[in-house]
Amino acid sequence: MIRLWFDDFWGAFDPTNNFFTHTLDLFGFRYKLTRLWPDVLICSSFGDRKKKFTCRKLFYTGENVKPNESQCDFSISFQPTTERNLRLPVYLYHAWYQSRGLGLPEGVDSMLQILLDRVKGPRFSEPRDRFCSFIFGNGKPKRRNEFFHALQAYKPVDSAGKWMNNTGYTVENKIKFLRYYKFNIAFENESSPGYTTEKILDPLLSGSIPIYWGNPDVAEDFSPDSYINSMDYSSDEEVVEVIKAIDQNDDLFRQYQQAACFVNNVPTPYWQLERLCAFYANVLGRPGS
After folding, report:
1. Whether pLDDT at 123 is above 90
2. Cβ atoms within 10 Å, residue 47
3. Residue 51 lies in domain
4. Which of 64, 92, 129, 255 is the least crowded, having the fewest Cβ atoms under 10 Å away?
């Protein structure tokens, strides 16, 4: 049985109940949680306590932070898969978390099914009588702020996050909130190859059309037919014109809304958690041992 511990995660992280413990249990790995002389430390980027541990280290990041191979033995990140790193986009961690908020079975399968079922028509019956939403707490990304103002020149955009809030309230459940909106500004904090987060996943799950900026290789994660990729255009004005055309044409809107999220509606390998099981085996040993 492996002695396991977590450190340097975000403040609300629960070491006893999280994506890692859920998937370790799912695959039958035997472990004991203890901060005293662990065999393996699963750590993240929110601190430096990891440096005090001399055991094997598995670094996880959902941020735009590249793993430092001199400080960890293995990593799970947005970087390409290698012998020591597994590309597991943070939107998968988020899908597991969101399944709880929607009252669905814990895991990613129920969220994946929502994405696959989009081609059958809208999952949610709420009227799409609101134009576009903008839900962010981080006001630093200049690119995102610029686009918000560019789109505002066409129609009012509802900002329901802490940053530039104009609704008078903040959102408790983003997916439920987006059910009423035709579009959602889904700009990442930063642009980096491979770095795709939940910002595009949430509107896809809700039936709102994502207006995306961020990972230049996002088409490897989701079919380009299912969102507006602002990086395909030379200016914000061009993007706004595309949005106008969709907004003013119900058939075109439904075409985007019901487009398959994956090419030929076949999920990418990233949704196959068996990849994670095999990677865990490299770090921890075989399940059940």
Report:
1. no
2. 12
3. 2-89+273-284
4. 129
